[in-house]
Amino acid sequence: MMLMSVFMLTLTLFSISGCGDGSPKAVISYPEANTDEAKFYVAKCGACHAAPSPDIYRASRWIGIVARMQMHMSNKGMPVLSKPEQQIVIDYLEKHAGNDKN
User: Fold this and answer.
1) Which among 75, 13, 81 is positioned nearest to 47, based on CA atoms?
2) What residues does 98 pair with on adjacent strands?
3) Distance from C-alpha of 100 to C-alpha of 55, rounded to nearest angstrom
4) Of 44, 83, 78, nearest to 63 (Cα)?
5) Tens digits of per-residue pLDDT, 53-71?
6) Which of 2, 12, 26, 45 has its CA at 20 to 30 Å from residue 18's CA atom?
7) Contact, 27 vs 52, CB < 8 A?
């Protein structure tokens, strides 16, 4: 019974881990989570890591972050977002961005 519990826990941890480091993804509440834009953002940007909450950066920072992630994906041989897909992500992030100094 104990061996089965350990196996199930291990299987669960592997199934919820991110692409690169094997750590579990964080649970984040996203604004307007049921919209197509939010779902697209979480699906694309959360494929390998927890997609960050849009309010952790101000709107002006997101375009550079998305560009940097595109380069990172390309360098790893992963498919990058098309220009229209990038715009969906940037629009969603900027709409829900934070107002602090980040």
Assistant:
1) 81
2) 58
3) 9
4) 83
5) 999 999 999 999 999 999 9
6) 2
7) no
